[in-house]
Amino acid sequence: MADGYSFVVVANRLPVDRTTDEHGEAQWTRSPGGLVSALEPIVRASGGAWVGWTGAPDDDTGPAAVDGIQLQPVPLSSEDIDRYYEGQSNSTIWPLFHDLVEPPVHKREWRQAYEAVNRRFAEATAAVAAEGAAVWVHDYQLLLVPAMLRALRPDLRIGFFLHIPFPPVELFMQLPRRAELLRGLLGADLVGFQRPLAAQNFLQLTARILGLSPQEDSVVYEDRTVVARAFPISIDVAEIDRIAASPGAQREADRLRAELGGDRRLLLGVDRLDYTKGIEQRVEAFGELLAEEAVSNDEVVLVQVATPSRMRVAQYQQLRERVEREVGRINGEHGAVGKVPVHYLFQSRSREELVALYLATDVMLVTPLRDGMNLVAKEFVAARRDELGAMVLSEFTGAAAELDDAFLVNPHDVEDLKRAMVAALDASPDDRTARMRRMRAHVQAHDVDHWAREFLDALGVPVHT
Ligand code: ADQ
Question: Of these residues, 80, 236, 371, 449, which one is catalytic?
């Protein structure tokens, strides 16, 4: 690496998981997910590098080349993980950017650690980027990196994409050291968001906090033009379609349906166990429908798959307890021997298993209180080659702006959730097919590769794959 890499992705996590084989040697396996599958071919074709954390504490693994991508690990100590990752990123910024669904916690030592870790990411990137390289920084853990990187390397072309919502002006104003965070993002040439409103919030803040004069989709800062626009992220549609088309997936879907009680209608939720996802409200609404006898345990069944997530953060442990208690209560009150209304799986599942579940489903429930995009909604649509299956979708997801043929719902309103669930269950096959067909056309035309290319095109980076 005498001259550095011409394209560098910077994200909290590397696109791989590290395991150790029987000889004690480090092995890397590609981690699943749309972002990795979208960026990997682009990074590989451009001979690029990826800067990020391995996911393990105090891991001093050095750089490694895996599948044509240069990995540049940024080590994090246990204290960094406590303060930068679980603290400032996931207990301050995450809840505040999701409209205070839970109260954010503010701690000075978390902010200091966040700044120090962001600086290490910037330095690691500056060390590997070639002269004039394009760098694409991702997400809320690294808000300060663009400005830090620009200070080190003014020659670089810097893009930033925020995967989560960007809060309204009044909420952002609550953040300690808000001006610094804003200046952090303004270090980029292009700042991408999931929704146009988020870009507008950001631009308004540059006027309010820094006294700048934003234009329609840009602002001049330190003699540079910074563009802020929406680039709604998507999924690897071809991959989901390939899995859905396999005989194994359909067989598994049939098996699941038979196991759950052949003639019961299946409602499904698939989320990380996170308080932004509206799992509690969803389960509560389902419980009320049973209690009011709008539906019965013989007719319907809810499967909720919840991936364990951030389990060292107290708010997540408490959420887990509340959900488990509510599921237990509903099953106790409305279940029968060998037949319960809610199947709750606190587990991660393979993509193949998720697709089989999507195929078995009558009504998909995607009801976050707030969500930047929500990829589960798009995966469900991409899986339904049969053009059947209805979806209840929260208005507060980025996905709702694109998938407005779903049964849209205000997830804060349990009555509205109940109404939408019943409407989706009662919809005629023709209605469901017409809605699904339109949603599929949209998702097929806007996959994750399309997203990455649009962003890089706006950044002025040629994409070769
Ligand atoms: P997340 O908050 O993680 O992403 P989401 O967009 O739904 O939310 O993506 C979750 C991914 O994890 C999906 O691909 C899904 O299939 C998978 N997943 C969920 N539950 C699972 C389970 N039990 N087992 C296995 N896999 C599971 C953040 C933002 C979102 C934004 C994305 C991408 O919060 O708003 O859409 O980044 O930008």
Answer: 371
Position in ligand 1 atom list of the atom nearest CA 32: 14
- Using the structure block, give the residue that is written with the tokens 């017409």: 434
Q: Is the pTM here over 0.70, yes or no?
A: yes
CA distance 274 to 296: 28
Q: Given this model, what pLDDT does residue 371 score?
A: 97
Is the CB–ligand 1 distance for residue 375 below 6 Å? yes
- pLDDT at position 34 is 63
Is there a domain that residue 62 lies in? yes
Q: What is the pLDDT of residues 111-144, one digit of tens each?
A: 999 999 999 999 999 999 999 999 999 999 999 9
Q: Give the pLDDT confidence of 1-18 residue by residue, as tens digits.
A: 558 999 999 999 999 887
Contact (CB, 8 A) for 148 and 25: no
The response to whether residue 165 sits with its C-beta less than 6 Å from ligand 1 reads: no
Q: Tell me the three state secondary structure of residue 16.
A: strand
Percent over 90 (pLDDT), the chain: 89
Q: Cα separation of 274 and 309, whole Å?
A: 7
Q: CB-based contacts of 371: which residues, under 8 Å, 6+ apart? A: 98, 165, 276, 277, 394, 396, 397, 398, 399
If you average pLDDT over every residue of the chain, what do you get?
Answer: 95
Residue 371 annotated as catalytic: yes
> Ligand 1 centroid to 376 CA: how many Å?
6
Q: Which atom of ligand 1 is nearest to the CA of 379?
A: 16
Q: Are 99 and 13 found together in one domain?
A: yes
> What CATH number is given to the structural domain containing 341?
3.40.50.2000
Same domain, 241 and 284: yes
> Which residue's structure tokens are 């200070």?
151
**163 is known as an active-site residue:** yes
Closest approach atom of ligand 1 to CA 271: 20
Active-site entry in 17, 82, 163, 431: 163
Per-residue pLDDT, 2: 52
Catalogue the long-range contacts made by 91-95 (C-beta closer than 8 Å, 24 or more residues apart): 91/313, 91/315, 92/175, 93/140, 93/143, 93/175, 94/140, 94/164, 94/276, 95/275, 95/315
Q: Please give the residue range of the domain that contains residue 358.
A: 237-445
The 10s digit of each residue's pLDDT in 288-322 is 999 999 999 999 999 999 999 999 999 999 999 99
